Amino acid sequence: MRGATLWWLVFANGGNILVWYTEGSHWINMKPVLETLVDRGHQVTVLVPSASMFMNKSEPSRFSYEPFNVSVSKEDMRFSHFDVYLEIYIKFTSMIRNNIQNNLKFLDGVLKSETTMKKLKERKYDLLLSDPIYPGSDLTADILGLPLVFSLRFSIAHNWERLCGQLPAPHSFVPGPMSKLTDKMDFLERVWNFLYFALQDAVYDYVFWAELDKYYSEGKGEYPRNKKHCVTTHFLWTTYSSMII
């Protein structure tokens, strides 16, 4: 069924695509994809939260925006992003915890808004496109009954790419993103790279994923995050990306 839907997007008059909100470099990375989708005749609508720092719904654009309100201010978001760069190693855990709480408030702005959800259902989108750096697109796609396509720029230490996308990343050869290492590592750097991967995985498991699993379970009953679900979603991206764009 999903494959048939995606083929239809290519050979018919274009599909109706809903795009999950994102920020920063992830948004910059996503925009060329959206421009290409428009070039191919698709109608593209981007969800944009009221506290977005980089997504400007008032700027001229070939795609449309669907704004929604969130209980987070732009000042809160600026504080979160500056923390990332100022003291990422010292305050990494608290930064992740703070970010996930803000992210869940963003998600509330979509799922707990009757007005927003009614609009999304009435517009009969064909699929949901997302950079999953902001969580909730998979849950939203499931509720709306839409195929989900991921276009991920990167995650810290390739956490999502390795655990969800099955990306081969042997620690002795592949430096973790944001570790400041290169592919030419001496023995001590390889040891640090191994510890870096392990540290980020532990932080994500006990802070990020734990909070997200709790939210999903409360929002839709038992909705566990598992490897099978992640691999299925990633498979759609790697298999159908060329057909979509």
How would the blueprint of this fold be written?
Layout: H1 2-11, E1 16-19, H2 24-39, E2 43-49, E3 64-68, H3 74-86, H4 92-111, H5 114-122, E4 127-130, H6 137-144, E5 148-150, H7 159-163, H8 187-220, H9 227-244
Parallel strand pairs: 1-2, 1-4, 2-3, 4-5
Helix pairs in contact: 3-4, 4-8
Features:
UDP_glucos_trans, 245 residues, single chain, 5-stranded parallel β-sheet, UDP glucuronosyltransferase 5 family, polypeptide D1, UDP-glycosyltransferase, Rossmann fold, alpha/beta, glucuronosyltransferase activity, disordered N terminus, 9 helices
Name the CATH architecture.
3-Layer(aba) Sandwich
Write down the domain tally. Answer: 1
Q: Return residue spans where pLDDT drops below 50 for at least 5 consecutive residues.
A: 1-12, 81-86, 223-245
What letter string, H or E per element, gives the SSE order?
HEHEEHHHEHEHHH
CATH class: Alpha Beta
What is the fold named in CATH at topology level? Rossmann fold
The gross shape turns out to be: globular
The overall average pLDDT, rounded, is: 76
The percentage of residues in β strands lies in 5-15%
Radius of gyration: 18 Å
Q: What percent of residues adopt helix (DSSP H or I)?
A: 40-55%
Q: Tally of extended strands?
A: 5
Secondary-structure class: alpha/beta
Q: Largest sheet, described in full?
A: 5 strands, parallel
Order of adjacent strands in the largest pleated sheet: 3-2-1-4-5
Distance between the termini: 19 Å
How many helices?
9
